[in-house]
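Aim 2, interim progress. The first record below pairs a target sequence with its structure tokens.
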Amino acid sequence: MAVPDRMDERLRALRLVEEQRMAQAVFAGVIEGGLISPGSTECEVDDRIWDVAGEVFGTAVGWPDRLVRSGPHTVLPYGRCRPDRVIGVDDLVVIDLGPLFAGHETDFARTVVVGDDPGRRRLVEDMAQVGVAARERFLGQDGITGRQLHAEVRALAGKAGWSLGAWQVGRLCGQAPAVGGSDPEPRSFIGPDNDEPLRRTAAGGWRAHWILEIRLVDERSGFGGAFKQLLDLV
């Protein structure tokens, strides 16, 4: 197998950034269009988002999967089947646009507050702040490992009064999202068992690029949120 040259690497990085930009455009369309509202079901909002995605991408995209989860569904592990649910007047709604991207190359998720509940609003604000702090730690330490960055995110979450909603806080671009409680390849995730530097050459000779995945939950109240985006590219 030929080792990718600098132009190959640059083109791949540009593609990852462009896919994230398009995901941001989809999310912006969802918010600007007021597509998330109390009384709508998750499946109804899901269908509306797929319509927006089709307009942004200009063609059929991704694979058929649910993009929306709300209320108690926000704390369920990914991959868990769940019934449809009506969004409440004070609620949290996770918009996970991962299914838009075939091959798991990138991912993007944000959490929307419905209503004025201060606890839910604080969770969304804290997720963004934890994401910024995690990226700053990554950029500030050349040899940082998956274990070290995971520990940083866990500490930041605890300091803010939240629990982590998953055993890992990120994954290698091109690696399928983790499902369940164990990881068959720790080196492919930003988790407690990954002692390898995140800046490294991955399979096929490609530079490793990472998705940051922050999931915070309020265990007592039974709600949570998700914040996903590229870690090392902007």
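The second target in this work package is listed in the same format:
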Amino acid sequence: MVSGYEGLPGGVALSHLSVYDWPAADGVCGGTPHMHLTCSEAYVVTGGRGAVQTLTTSGYEVTPLAPGTVAWFTPGTIHRLVNEDELRITVLMQNNGLPEAGDAVLTLPPEYLTDPETYAAATRIPPDAPEEERERVARARRDLALEGYRTLRYASGPEPLAAFHRAAAALVRPRLAQWRARWERGARAAAAATGDQLGRLERGDVSHLAEAGVCAQEPAVLGKFGMCGRLDVYTGD
């Protein structure tokens, strides 16, 4: 029987994000447009000002972001963070941080989405390279993703977005078993723990209350180059 779950509530994860202030070709400062396939993501704005541009089959939208704003979106939402004035966000992610651990496909032009090796070569930031090189690669892949994003945003019909969905799904298919295992250890286990506790209470069994505990954690990595900005990240499954 499941007696408890020690991860963050609901199997979520979080990171602290300082959105890139690099200007793009369109004069807008911000991050790399991308999409998650199985995870919702939420932004809790803690400082600065900006917006998130989103693109779905329902169309293009812009959601302003200011301190106190909480904005979230479901899988399939292409999103681009815009930094207008030192935008800082706490990001909440489903499935133990899976959006930063694989469940993301950047909106690269179609020729970079043909297979996992081609995609990885265009998106991987070498972890042991000097910071200046990691920044150069992060900025270059942002600009490359913006090329594909503009094509999708200004497409005259639904097929380019549908084609991107198909290509993204094909790219991540080899990793789906790993994702399922992560979900089973995380969000599914958290829900099962609640179900077990409800069952105990229905039977008058309060023994799980004696198993209570407190957990705390500091960021494991500070200032990592992420898709949307510099990240302070926590260890996770």
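The longest helix spans residues 131-153. This observation will shape the mutagenesis plan for the next reporting period.
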